[in-house]
From TrEMBL:
One of its GO terms (biological process) is phosphate ion transmembrane transport. This is Phosphate ABC transporter, ATPase subunit. Pfam families: ABC_tran. GO terms for molecular function: ATP binding; ATP hydrolysis activity; phosphate transmembrane transporter activity.
Length: 264
């Protein structure tokens, strides 16, 4: 299997690319030389059977693996246009996480107020101006399609919100620091169909200002929300392309078997 890819014709602007990315948990090689473009203001979906390395790949982008011992990156993830390799030892992972935010599978608001959840990243960055933070919190909550529901209860604890509202709050929190990329790791798997629909709609809206990578087990979701799709299998990138091509005319039989449910 190879992860060499051909860039689509008339490709949009590159926001990032992984180049020959390998990743190890101890001696176990979880990613095997993955090279993939990530296009600006587009949604790229990562699909594949359980354990194929989707979350591992996603977590390389914001250096999440640094938080655990015994892990090792090899290769690079280059951010454009400044050509920064986020995996390089000289790059501060905290700075990377300001530029590349993450939304997890299970909504994980902090045990703080709605306001403080969204203000959190700005405070970490050292923002002190109350009016600046107020404006950013309002804009982020609007961006997360939550402002109308919470504007009169900003000081209430966030855990009182419904699951779908909590996930939109986590998206607002991710938006507040004006990230360039947001990583979504199965963001709707803990939500009901209605809340799932509103998160998918939101992803369609925020991609106008941010680049998105999303891991999903839901083929319909990948087809609905993404512009590009990557099919992974045991640490390899099997096929990458425009979502419509991956779903309508995949080049590889393994991809076809997976998306048609014959495998996985
Ligand atoms: N902390 C860890 N230590 C050791 N191995 C790990 C660790 N986390 C994941 N792995 C292994 O790395 C491989 C890829 O796991 P990963 O979670 O990235 O897959 P995935 O495609 O996201 O799976 P799923 O769809 O089930 O979430 C699997 O073989 C998994 O067992």
């Amino acid at each position: 299997m190879t992860s060499t890819i051909t860039l689509p014709e008339n490709a949009p602007t590159l926001k990032a690319e992984s180049k020959n990315l390998n990743f190890f948990y101890g001696d176990f090689k979880a990613l095997k030389g993955i090279s993939m473009p990530i296009y600006e203001n587009k949604v790229t979906a990562l699909i594949g059977p359980s354990g194929c390395g989707k979350s591992t790949y996603l977590r390389c982008f914001n250096r999440m693996h640094d938080l655990y011992s015994g892990t090792r990156y090899d290769g690079s993830i280059v951010l454009h246009p400044d050509e920064v390799d986020v995996l390089h030892k000289s790059v501060d992972p905290i700075e990377v996480r300001m530029r590349i935010s993450m939304v997890f599978q299970k909504p994980n608001p902090f045990p703080k107020s709605i306001y403080e959840n969204v203000a959190y990243g700005l405070r970490v960055r050292g923002e002190k101006s109350r009016s600046y933070i107020d404006d950013k919190v309002e804009a982020a909550l609007k961006g997360g399609a939550l402002w109308g529901e919470v504007k009169d209860r900003l000081n209430e604890v966030a855990v009182n919100l419904s699951g779908g509202q909590q996930q939109r709050l986590c998206i607002a929190r991710a938006l507040a620091t004006d990230p360039e990329i947001i990583l979504f790791d199965e963001p709707t798997s803990a939500l009901d169909p209605m809340a799932t629909g509103s998160i998918e709609e939101l992803i369609g809206e925020i991609k106008n200002k941010v680049t998105i990578l999303i891991v999903t087990h839901n083929m319909q979701q990948a087809a609905r929300v993404s512009d590009y799709t990557a099919y992974m299998y045991v640490g390899d990138l099997v096929e990458y392309g425009e979502t419509k091509d991956i779903f309508m005319k995949p080049k590889r039989k393994e991809t076809e078997d997976y998306i048609t449910g014959r495998f996985g």
